[in-house]
Amino acid sequence: MTQFPDLYQRDREWHPPAYAQNYKTSVTRSPRKALLSLETTPSEAAGPTFGHNDIDPLDKDLLRNYAKTGDPIGERIILHGRVLDENTRPVPNTLVEIWQANAGGRYRHKKDTYLAAIDPNFGGCGRTLTDENGCYSFRTVKPGAYPWRNWVNSWRPAHIHVSVFGTSFAQRLITQLYFEGDPLIAKCPIVNTIPDQRAINQLVAALDLNATVPLDSLAYKFDIVLRGYRSTYFENRPEGN
């Protein structure tokens, strides 16, 4: 039987500082006082799961789950991967949610005023449960890049936001993935707050030609590792779940 260590030491050089000079929004988001460590309450640790029993087969198909008059506009893709623990064991029955901009780089949100058009057939969000092998998959369109008010000419790379729920409501991890080959990744002020290139690389979904559907959709693979040396960088909890 394989023996795994009980504790993986957290690498504090892996994660970005709370304040980064070139990421203007971090000025208001960074703490000005010493951080407090709060113990998890029993209700938080043993509370109910969220949304696990409300999954519709169309929820993971963003090409169809909001369509009104036809397919969404844009490059059709399959996003797939596995949710794994620190020792590469699969994590089944995990709720994975995604949300994203459309192919023009605009979110379906009233506060998004980017001049790109709203796609009437694209809602931009989906969810699914991992299977017994920790696998998940979505059909969607590749999101577009969009400008944001950091500096005069700052653009976000194409990205998809990812949320993973554990066994209770308080166990939620959030991150965002990018796409292999995008030149904007290296120029993004948010990405560049991450000091370790290995961590950045683990946020990039790899082109997976083996999973493509010929004459239909390209595929990208993005594995989510919850803890350990190869853990995915999560925005809301740097040390992992």
Automatic annotation (TrEMBL):
Gene3D superfamilies in UniProt: Aromatic compound dioxygenase
The keyword Nucleotide-binding appears for this protein: no
EC class of the enzyme, as a word: oxidoreductase
Enzyme Commission number: 1.13.11.3
Family matches, as Pfam families: Dioxygenase_C, PCDO_beta_N
InterPro entries: Intradiol_dOase_C, Intradiol_dOase_core, Intradiol_RC_Dioxygenase, PCDO_beta_N, Protocat_dOase_b
Domain Protocatechuate 3,4-dioxygenase beta subunit N-terminal: from-to ranges: 8-41
Domain Intradiol ring-cleavage dioxygenases per the UniProt entry, residue ranges: 47-228
One GO term (biological process): 3,4-dihydroxybenzoate catabolic process
Keyword match Oxidoreductase: yes
Keywords associated with the record: Dioxygenase, Oxidoreductase
UniProt GO MF annotations: ferric iron binding; protocatechuate 3,4-dioxygenase activity
Sequence similarity: Belongs to the intradiol ring-cleavage dioxygenase family.
Entry protein name: Protocatechuate 3,4-dioxygenase beta chain
Organism this protein belongs to: Ruegeria meonggei
Lineage: Bacteria, Pseudomonadati, Pseudomonadota, Alphaproteobacteria, Rhodobacterales
